[in-house]
Each structure stands twice: as structure tokens, then as C-alpha cells.
């Protein structure tokens, strides 16, 4: 049975797309849900997976071709050997011939993927493999970072990397060759360079980032116990060694300093270029400060009612919904209700117009290993507490693993940032353009408060609302913040809509 492989439905604002990378060729056997091809738009890279086990038949559109939504780009022969035969016949003779000697050590190039039109170049972020290490087909080899998204480059077949041409931190361009790949088993891969792997010292089988770290700290690689694959030393291993044995590391650093005629071993510097994501964050924050009339207003909230409610219903909530009841769902619910009452806070400026949004998409600030990002939780007015908790958890996991797509990051009418998880007691958050306001939550701290003429110790939290004074006046900003305070101090209001 022949199955048509089509371009996915494209977003309304995207007219067409480009075939970025075919991960299979005509005649290849594929498994269900195996990634066949990456299709790139100006916003995101889409993966098209195999709908069933079978053999790739005809590939209609090659890499670089411009395609439309739901266009047929290839055909898959579902099943086994019979389909395989017909697929190979449709394949050019030179391709089928090249597919045969895979076990013999065919060499191919590892290229940077095609970059979006608005992206001039990219940076090698992390190599996940080293020269000579055996890898499986579709295993992630390297992360390449642009100012918008992190791209993964996977192995085209079973084999190994024979040469890395662009180390971590290098700036690369679209389709640039960054490594050489040898197909076949680990033995053929290692045979391509026996001396480099078998007879080298420990320093030669380390990733570039680990080599740099060892050199900066003056540490002998043989003294560090590796916990990575095949005993490989990772950055975490080096950091752990530094913590456990600072006494031995300092003399090495001091010796290096003496060799450079520095006054002491402690007066060292480390210069690291900004990542593309960090550059983008920096530019957007500076843009927000320069292009908005930003002002911050403060209030405080008694968190005892919510903490008592969580304590009472935590177990039953988790049993029913399969997720813990956190504070963020209360924050999101309270903010959504306040946005309904103060539409100016849910609006944005576009030129000389004010755009009022009749939907509620809230950005949640998430700290990731690569920097701060603000994925969007959409249509929060339609979500219950469990739906909000699950949505936030999914976005946080994607952010931690570097799997956030452009669709996850685009849009958003209002932002919530919670510095309290890091211990922040008070801050003035910066607006996330083109939004007009951002709410900062902070650390919950026991403080003495006057209640009905008596002093009580209550868990209090400061709230900070930064807003664009061009569109939001003091009356609306204070009213918005007081509404959030009232909703949180009396959670029943969230249920009764009062």
C-alpha cells in the first residue's frame, strides 16, 4: 500500500515552507514515527514522521525546494520486502549503489541545517559525541544555537564522527560542513583513525568545552573520574572535582599564574562570548527600557488562605488530576480575572493604535540552562486549575530540555514572573514587549502584621506590577493589582466570580 507523505498544515501567517533536511533516502526501511524530513518555515522547523513501518519510495521534493501546506512531497510503501524492491527500482542507480557499501565505511559530511531567512549565522552550542565514538542513526550529534531556537543535527546513519571541523563556540553559516561522518559499525569508524583514538592521551578524547575548562583551571585530566558514556569526562565531572579537591586545584592555578608573572594566583579573568539567546534577551530588555514609559506599583498579599486551601485539598487534587496543586495556578487564575476587569492591561500599542485583546494568553517566565524564556499558556480563561498546572509543567519541562518551539514562545498578552522561587523578596520586573504589563511574584515570608488591632505572624508576599504608562494609568494599574490581591487572599472569589 502506497502512503503519501505530505507537508503539515501551515499556520495562517505562513505562506510556504522549505524542505530543510531529508533524514532518509529512497529505498530506506523506516519505522513508524521515525522522523523522515525537516520542513522549515520562517518561524519554526516542522518534523514529518513515518505514519507506518515501510520503505521509502519516491522522494518528490528535494532539499531546498519550496513547498505549500499539505503538498505531497514523497511516497512511502507500507510493508516489507516487496515494497522495498519497487522503491529501489525508482531510485537512481548511483543512489542505490551508494547505499550498499554502508558497512564498508562510506564517508559523508555533517552540515549546518538551512537557517531561516532572517538568521544570518549560528553558533555551535554543544557537541554530544566525540571523534571515534559509535553513534546510532538519528542520534543527536550537536546542538546549533541561533538567536531564536536551538537546532539539533542528527546522525544520518549508524557510524561515527571521524573529524570535527567546528568546535563549540564557533560561528557557522547555513549548510556549512562542520564534521565528517563515517558510516558503518564502530570498528570501521575507529579504523579511520586508530592512532587518534587508541594511542592518544586523555586530553584528545575530551569535548572542546571540557578541554577548555581543564586548561582554565589547570587540572590534569587523568585525575578526574569520568561519569559520561564509556567513562568520558563531562563538565559536571570537572566541577565536582573542583568542589571536592579545591586544595589540589589551587596550587595548579597558582603555578600557572606564576608562569604568567601575575601578582597572585587568584587574579584571573574568564572571557566568554554571549550566546545568541543571551544577546536576544539583552536586546529585548534594553528595547523595553528605551521604548516604554515603564512604571512599577507594589502591594502585598496574605498567602495564608491559599496555603490552607492547598494543605486541605492537595492529596485529593493530585489523586484526581495526577498533578500537584501549586501556587502558579492561583496566580494565573487571579491574573486572568483581573485582565477581564481591566482590558487596558490586556492591550498593546501598535503605532498610533491601541489593540485590545479579547483572549487571554499569559506568558510564564521560565529559567532555563540557556537563559530566561517566556513560553505562552494560551486561553487561560478556558482552563481549570488542573489544566493550568499541567500546561505550566509541560512548558517548564520543554524549557529545561531545550525543546520549546517557536509556537510555544510567540504571542502572549501579559507576563507572570516568579522570582520568589530563587529567594527574591522585592523586584521591579521589566515589561516583555509588545505587552503592556508584567506581574512579579516574590518570596513568601512570615512577617508580623496588624490584624483587628492585634499582631499576627502571617505568610506575606510582595506583588510588583510594572506597566507602560502610555496606555495604562495609575487608576487601572492599582485597581488591577488590588484585584489580584483580593482574589489571592479570598480564593472563593475565583469560584464565585465576585
TrEMBL record:
Acyltransferase recorded as keyword: yes
Functional pathway: Amino-acid degradation; L-lysine degradation via saccharopine pathway; glutaryl-CoA from L-lysine: step 6/6
Domain Peripheral subunit-binding (PSBD): 205-242
Catalytic activity: N(6)-[(R)-dihydrolipoyl]-L-lysyl-[protein] + succinyl-CoA = N(6)-[(R)-S(8)-succinyldihydrolipoyl]-L-lysyl-[protein] + CoA
GO molecular function, one term: dihydrolipoyllysine-residue succinyltransferase activity
GO cellular component, one term: oxoglutarate dehydrogenase complex
Composition bias, Low complexity: 89-108
Spans annotated as Disordered: 85-108
Presence of the UniProt keyword Transferase in the record: yes
Enzyme Commission code: 2.3.1.61
Family matches, as NCBIfam families: PRK05704.1, sucB
Protein purpose: E2 component of the 2-oxoglutarate dehydrogenase (OGDH) complex which catalyzes the second step in the conversion of 2-oxoglutarate to succinyl-CoA and CO(2).
Name the UniProt record assigns to this protein: Dihydrolipoyllysine-residue succinyltransferase component of 2-oxoglutarate dehydrogenase complex
Source species of the chain: Alteromonas aestuariivivens
